[in-house]
Write a structure and sequence with these properties.
Blueprint (H helix, E strand, L loop, with lengths): L6 E4 L1 H14 L5 E5 L1 H5 L3 H10 L4 E4 L2 H7 L8 E6 L9 H11 L4 E5 L2 H14 L5 E6 L14 H9 L4 E7 L11 H20 L4 E3 L3 H6 L7 E4 L21 E6 L2 E5 L4 E2 L5 E2 L4 E6 L16 E4 L2 E6 L7 E4 L10 E5 L9 H7 L4 H6 L6 E4 L1
Parallel strand pairs: 1-19, 2-3, 2-9, 3-4, 4-5, 5-6, 6-7, 7-8
Antiparallel strand pairs: 1-10, 10-18, 11-14, 12-13, 14-17, 15-16, 16-17
């Protein structure tokens, strides 16, 4: 029986290549943190994390505490930072929150983030109730200009002090996010980094072992020599571009999406194809059905606009991409049922690479990658 799903094939060699590209660019001794939130940007954290751990990645980071707990079996005991701040207005929390924090306290590799002194104190009080013998490692997030999450610049030192002086907490890190890290020489990134250096210098004088980190993939590439302890590598590890307009040409996409042709139909000229008959055949045609649709992360916006690769020939997608299936025109192809179709290519020069398809949809590679659905079979190669 043919697979009724697409297969996302992940290249070990390319993942390792991308890691070493950044390792060579950054100062010797700087820690590298792999950002594997959102299921490793859709690529499969269960696949990607062990490969990176085996290659010597120093840290992992995810978005939520729940993601950090899910990653534990695949992290090889590397530290895992949950970037989303713990916000606790009081020392009382829901049962679900208590359960998450209790489990985190039993996992010494998990680190939490806070952005305000009250939440830090309430987290410590909750930790005391849940497990009096445990101590939580904490990173303080500050906002230097992304205007999203983070302690205000003028409260950063006080938040760090509130963490450091609490016996249930351990101040481990201080970090920020760049708003324009993907754009080379952007003055806002330079300003943010100068501000971060200014604030962190005073905090580091009081807590000399604090771990400082600010760079994402673009920031690590464009500002590699910042005096920081760690860089957080996300989209670039997967070989996708932080910004298509400023490509990092050494990166290699690690994923390709393939699926078999599960049916071929011959239809006459004038036949409407797919929902709404948005494509009407202008000639007698052979139509192939591929078991991948927008539920799998192949966007509906590619309807009647994209192409796929089969037997070294590009053939058009016709009609609307549906939830589970996509129709392709095989009239000029000798393809047969069971033949493999490439819907997303790992060739960065191909019109089927993830960045190119995202651009065709008017979005970015991040969104296309993180939308890759759970039905896809993920396999290392």
């Amino acid at each position: 029986m043919l697979e009724q799903a697409g297969t996302l094939r992940i290249s070990r060699q390319r993942l390792i290549h991308n890691l070493h590209v950044f390792r060579r660019r950054l100062p010797a001794g700087m820690l590298l943190c792999a950002t594997v939130k959102a299921n490793a940007y859709g690529h499969g954290a269960q696949l990607v994390a062990p490969l990176l751990a085996a290659e010597g990645i120093d840290w992992f980071c995810v978005y939520s505490l729940a993601e950090a707990l899910e990653l534990l079996p695949w992290s090889a005991d590397k530290p895992i930072l949950a970037l989303a701040p713990v916000v606790l207005p009081t020392d009382h929390a829901t049962k679900d929150t208590c359960d998450l924090i209790s489990r985190a306290m039993q996992a010494p590799t998990i680190r939490l983030s806070v952005t305000d002194a009250n939440s830090a104190g309430n987290l410590a009080a909750l930790a005391q109730r849940l497990n009096p013998s445990a101590r939580l490692s904490v990173h303080v997030q500050i906002d230097t200009g992304l205007t999203r999450q983070g302690a205000d610049i003028d409260t950063a030192a006080a938040v760090c002090r509130a963490v450091a002086e609490n016996s249930r907490l351990r101040l481990e890190g201080l970090f920020m996010h760049l708003s324009h890290g993907d754009v080379p020489d952007h003055p806002e990134s330079s300003r943010q980094l100068v501000e971060f250096r200014r604030v962190s210098r005073a905090i580091q004088a009081e807590y000399p072992d604090i771990l400082l980190h600010a760079q994402n993939s673009g920031g690590a590439w464009h500002w590699p020599h910042e005096p920081l302890g760690m860089a957080r590598l996300g989209i670039g590890l997967y070989g996708l571009q932080p910004a298509i307009g400023s490509p990092l040409k050494e990166l290699q996409p690690i994923a390709e999406l393939q699926a078999p042709i599960t049916a071929i139909h011959r239809r006459s000229a004038g036949t409407g194809v797919g929902y709404g008959h948005t494509h009407v055949l202008s000639r007698a045609s052979r139509l192939g059905v591929v078991p991948v649709g927008y539920a799998d992360g192949y966007p509906r916006l590619l309807s009647n606009r994209s192409v796929v690769l089969i037997k070294d020939r590009l053939v058009p997608v016709i009609g609307r991409v549906s939830m589970d299936q996509t129709i392709i025109d095989l009239t000029d192809s000798a393809a047969d049922v069971g033949d493999s179709v490439t819907l997303i290519s790992d060739d960065p020069a191909s019109p089927l690479c993830m960045d190119a398809l995202a651009d065709l949809c008017g979005t970015i590679g991040y969104e296309l990658a993180t939308g890759l659905g759970p039905r896809l079979i993920r396999a290392a190669r």
